[in-house]
Amino acid sequence: METKKLLDDAGHYLMNTYSRFPVVLRKGRGMKVWSTDGKEYLDFVGGLAVNCLGHCHPKVVIAIQKQAQRLLHISNLYHIEPQIKLARRLVINSFADKVFFCNSGAEANEAAIKLVRKYFREQPVNNRFEIITAINSFHGRTIATLTATGQDKIKSGFEPLLPGFRHVAFNDIEALAAAITGQTCAIMLEPIQGEGGVKMPDESYLRNVRELCDRHGILLILDEVQTGMGRTGKLFAYEHYGVTPDIMTLAKGLGGGAPIGAMLSTARIATAFQPSSHGSTFGGNPLVCAAAMATLDVLLEDDLMLDQCRRMGGYFRKKLEALKEEFPGIIANISGAGLLIGIELTRNAAPVVKACLDRGILINCTAGNILRFMPPLIITEKEIDLLTDILEQVFDRLS
């Protein structure tokens, strides 16, 4: 009765912005979550790549509890101790020199868009404002970031959109080069397209993009909202490709479950932001920065968590490849890196997601026919085996 009442209230009081499953989740620990009616689920969605250390990781919970007793929020009119420490930690472990904190990936990308425009506005030749992004990309749902997003379904109904964006095919360096004009200021890409279907670039693609940027004097923005924070087996995905961006955006896994975003840049570019250029009331508040510091502590401790991600990602791929051999008429392709993995099906993926939900497994589909897996990095072989056994049962019924 309690679950039914909650679902009725959700339909009555909440805006209908999500296609939700009829499940109310109440608590979580590690890889597992429990609903209000007591059912247990194994979570391979991970809050859409947010819960990188699993649900309620003890170190993150303790950090939040301690900080909540000390100071919840203070204005950015004053210096904030956990924010300063987190910024230093991110700079030390990345290409960047400076950090701006906000609340989400969309806000981080919005900040990046504003920064590159402001930077070029202050140059002697200041007519550069266009940003090139990729078809099937996803950068957020603000007006600027949905305009940057290369998916018509995200933009529909919100016209007129912000001018100054061009879209080209992902992983097509020739199309990208042809799109550059005298008004181009930046290229903005996800190292791996997550929401667009877990699409991987060629090994040389991002290096060629970097060369294009250097040749034309434009900036490279890497949207690592989904790929950052160890998701691919390295702290940041750009490390796989031997490139250095000018700007990088983070969110999702950064807070280990707490809502935080960050935009990182080199010192040269960061000078374009001065007091009153940009801001965020809640950005970098003490509570979320304490959570993010604890998350980084776990991720970077002796490289154990990143190694775990690489090993489990390899094991996961091996198990999925075995399923592909067994069901070639259902599984067309497997892609991804670390624990961001996609299975391209030859049919609509939604029934598979529903069948797994009924069997106590949470998975996600995107782009219609892609099963996307973003489990916590703490996952074990046993949990992967449970998932692949369920998938085998589901695929067997479909075939």
Tell me about this structure.
There is one protein chain. The protein is of the alpha/beta class and 399 residues long. The protein folds into 2 domains: 2-56 and 303-398, Alpha-Beta Complex (Aspartate Aminotransferase, domain 1); 58-302, 3-Layer(aba) Sandwich (Aspartate Aminotransferase, domain 2). The protein has 14 helices and 15 strands. Helix 12 runs parallel beside helix 14. The mean pLDDT is 97.
Structure keywords:
399 residues; alpha/beta; Aspartate Aminotransferase, domain 1; Aspartate Aminotransferase, domain 2; 2 domains; seven-stranded mixed beta sheet; four-stranded mixed beta sheet; 15 strands; 39% helix; 17% strand; globular
- CATH topology value of the largest domain: Aspartate Aminotransferase, domain 2
Widest sheet, order of strands: 4-10-9-8-7-5-6
CATH architecture classification name of the largest domain: 3-Layer(aba) Sandwich
Compute the average pLDDT: 97
Give the low-pLDDT segments: none
Shape verdict: globular
Computed over alpha carbons, the radius of gyration is: 21 Å
Main CATH class of the largest domain? Alpha Beta
Number of strands: 15
Helix share, percent: 25-40%
> Structurally, how many domains make up the residues?
2
Largest sheet: 7 strands, mixed
Q: Report the sheet-strand fraction.
A: 15-25%
Order of helices and strands: HEEEHHHEHEHHEHEHEEEHHHEEHEEEH
Task: Give the count of helical stretches.
Answer: 14
